[in-house]
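just leaving the lab so this will be short. what follows is a protein written twice so to speak, once as letters and once as structure tokens for the fold. can you read through it and tell me how you think this chain folds. thanks a lot i owe you, the record is right below.

___
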Amino acid sequence: MASTACLRLPFLPARTSSCSSRSHRVPRASSIKCCAAGAGTSSVSISSAASREGVGAVGADGLVGPPVPVPDSPAPAPASRDLHWLPRPLTSADLMDAGGEGLKVAYQGCPGAYSEAAAKKAYPNCQTVPCEHFDTAFKAVENWLADRAVLPLENSLGGSIHRNFDLLLRHRLHIVGEVRLAVRHCLLANPGVKIENLRSAMSHPQALAQCEYTLTEFGIEHREAVDDTAGAAKIVAEKMLQDTGAIASFLAAEIYGLNILAQNIQDDKDNVTRFMMLAREPIIPRTDKPFKTSIVFSLEEGPGQLFKALGVFALREINLTKVCQIALFCLFYGSCVL
């Protein structure tokens, strides 16, 4: 914390003459005190040693007459606009209060989606709000229908979700945190259906790709892509499909009443998705530990544009931990934000 600095500027009293003993000396004058209490905070206070009786007029000889009462200052006029309604920036303390009590958190997909599990992991006591598309989740927060959004940013197997990079440029939301979720795919089917009865598997395209080898071993040849994993489970349950299974989460099986025929069917067991937590207001980083800063930007066409953009970080000795393709998404540790 910056040290407190103070400055006093006294007003010197007027010169007095000894020719008259009836006069009053000018009372001890006011002083101005300026204080800087910390970074970005300053205060100015004016104090006076004079009484509420006031000060008499000063003559040419430096003497003053009897004090003249000073009327009480009228109450300040009320502000024409109350600024307390303006949202304050989030602090890291707001996000570290893990419960998220009363928060509405938007996610993409149907109930039982991995994104909902990520939202519950980020804010355990929140109320989740399912959205049909990624863009809908962004708009839900912007239009105050939700307080936060939890959306996938990249998967350890499938790579980056470029659609959400583009939406970060189109919308005025801020990344205020991240959460990592281990993805454990399950093969789900209606009660009574066995693996040998399945001819088709339905799920999100990435989930199908992540389970390709295992599905082939099961003898399931046909693939059907839908918008999200939980949506596939919902379709299988609603239509009572007997030859089609869904690749979704354990939670989706409970919600839609499906049986789990196989668990952890992803080809690579180290399957992790990183989700970003979005809010309308930016976070104020704390200084007691490093914070990850994310920057998403686009470049104009021209020679050396990428070199110039990355040179901004190199000249300041900022180490980038990740640079994504298409939309440059740069991550670095520290409290400096360019």
The two ends are 22 Å apart (CA to CA). Residues 16 and 63 are 6 Å apart (CA to CA).
